[in-house]
């Protein structure tokens, strides 16, 4: 079905988990709010100890909904809470750093808007644009985890660990995310596969940051991801799908 240019206006809920991102949160929100497709921005502050909250509260835009966790509970917990508040037809998870570009929302939304997809993953390894060359062993680990996930889900993905996971909100509300940290990526992928969601991949640019610049993922998260791939594909049988 053909779509008009304005059909995507305000159709997207953006869920942003935030923990100590005072150096990037203003620039990130400025770019997110500039996207015509964005109708709701849900920010979950995971008990930041820097000026993140102060910066966020100073932005006057009715689309912003700010909440703060009672205690530091992890990215997965924050995203699970944010999803509950999504009110637009589509949603996306957006990290509070500047590694992913909100300017690419239109390309990632396209398969959803034209009815081809239920979920769209932004692949950093099908990139059509610039990509910062960083940690080789991270890439090896990502390839391994994506392949292992593909074996269980039978999805032919190139980047299961990507932050950019767009989906129909009706699917997101059924996820019931349990993981507190980065194990949520294989958890979401496994649950979407079990729901028989139509999953597409779209190439994206990627401006990764170093640990000195604030990157938080560690080798321990890699081992947790392996556990989560097995757990959510073989062990967990949620009643909701």
UniProtKB/TrEMBL annotation:
CDD domains: DPM_DPG-synthase_like (cd04179). Coiled coil: none annotated. Residues 13-170 form the Glycosyltransferase 2-like domain. InterPro entries: Glyco_trans_2-like, Glycosyltransferase_2, Nucleotide-diphossugar_trans. It holds the Pfam family Glycos_transf_2. This is Unannotated protein. The lineage of its organism: unclassified sequences, metagenomes, ecological metagenomes.
């Amino acid at each position: 079905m053909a779509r008009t240019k304005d059909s995507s206006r305000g159709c997207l809920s953006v869920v942003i988990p935030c923990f100590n991102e005072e150096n990037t949160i203003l620039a990130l929100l400025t770019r997110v709010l500039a996207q015509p497709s964005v109708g709701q921005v849900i920010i979950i502050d995971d008990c930041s100890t820097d000026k993140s909250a102060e910066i966020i509260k100073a932005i006057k835009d009715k689309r912003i909904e700010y909440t703060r966790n009672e205690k530091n509970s992890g990215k997965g917990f924050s995203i699970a809470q944010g999803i509950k508040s999504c009110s637009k037809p589509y949603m996306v998870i957006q990290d509070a750093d500047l590694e992913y570009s909100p300017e690419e929302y239109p390309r990632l939304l396209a398969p959803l808007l034209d009815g081809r997809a239920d979920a769209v993953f932004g692949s950093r390894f099908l990139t059509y644009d610039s990509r910062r060359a960083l940690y080789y062993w991270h890439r090896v680990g990502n390839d391994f985890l994506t392949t292992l996930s593909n074996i269980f889900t039978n999805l032919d993905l190139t980047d299961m660990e990507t932050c950019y996971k767009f989906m129909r909100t009706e699917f997101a509300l059924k996820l019931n995310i349990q993981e507190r940290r980065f194990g949520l990526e294989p958890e979401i992928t496994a649950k979407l596969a079990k729901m028989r969601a139509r999953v597409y991949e779209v190439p994206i640019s990627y401006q990764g940051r170093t640990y000195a610049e604030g990157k938080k993922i560690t080798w321990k998260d890699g081992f947790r991801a392996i556990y989560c791939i097995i757990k959510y594909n073989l062990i967990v049988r949620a009643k909701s799908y």
